[in-house]
Amino acid sequence: MDLYYTPGSAPCSVVLLVAAALDIQLNLKELNLRGGEHLKPEFLKLNPQHTVPTLVDDGFALWESRAISRYLIAKYNNKELYPEDIKTRALIDQRLDFDLGTLYPRFGNFFYPQVFAGEPANQGLYRKIEEALDFFNSFLKGHKYAVGETLTLADLSLVATVSTMEAAGISLDSYPRVQEWFELVKSTTPGYEEANEKNLKKFKAIIKKSKEEL
């Protein structure tokens, strides 16, 4: 299977973390988004939305990181990362939707205009991040992981976002449950270093280069 991705992207890291947890090898095809490679006709045929990550499995193209992740989990029949119990699965889906619709967008709305457009930090948007982290901190009460006592897809999605936020300089000091969860997930996720830490280093390099170019 081919995975079109860009280093430093949290959504791409989600899929890489899932692949590592499933112990599968993906054929990585790096796209230079700043160079417009995602807008080339051959890629648009695969994904008209021209986003990464995009998975291609024997001609079947799929994008959106959580959709790809669930597809891989189903394909390899893994019942640990996405259990069949409907209440557990509902909570995982809630955490995924929270990440997709609240936590990551709030981070992106605050941080990316500063890096790529040279805008000043917006404190109102930063307070939105604090509120989202407060929400997540409350979700973790009584839970070892994001959902219950075992590692699930919810953790892999959320850790990609939280690690990116930390790499961007957002402190987790006011969120003790999030801090504890973060350290646990980093130490218990299969292949975490290879799947995520390397991308975080590239993310920091992208930030540095973008700031220099402004």
Give me a quick take on this structure.
The protein has 214 residues and is an alpha+beta fold.
Q: Could you characterize the architecture of this molecule?
A:
With 214 residues, the protein is of the alpha+beta class. The chain has 2 domains: 2-75, Glutaredoxin (3-Layer(aba) Sandwich), CATH 3.40.30; 86-213, Glutathione S-transferase Yfyf (Class Pi), Chain A, domain 2. The chain is 60% helix and 7% strand. It is built from 8 helices and 4 strands. It has helices at 10-22, 41-46, 65-75, 86-117, 123-139, 153-167, 176-188, 192-213; strands at 2-5, 27-30, 54-57, 60-63. A 4-stranded mixed beta sheet has the order 2-1-3-4, covered by helices on one side. The radius of gyration is 17 Å and the shape is globular. The model has no long low-confidence stretch (mean pLDDT 95).
List the helices and strands and how they pair.
Elements: E1 2-5, H1 10-22, E2 27-30, H2 41-46, E3 54-57, E4 60-63, H3 65-75, H4 86-117, H5 123-139, H6 153-167, H7 176-188, H8 192-213
Parallel strand pairs: 1-2
Antiparallel strand pairs: 1-3, 3-4
Helix pairs in contact: 1-3, 1-6, 1-8, 4-5, 4-6, 6-8
GO molecular function, one term: glutathione transferase activity
Subunit structure: Homodimer.
InterPro entries: Glutathione-S-Trfase_C-like (IPR010987), Glutathione-S-Trfase_C_sf (IPR036282), Glutathione_S-Trfase (IPR040079), Glutathione_S-Trfase_N (IPR004045), GST_C (IPR004046), Thioredoxin-like_sf (IPR036249)
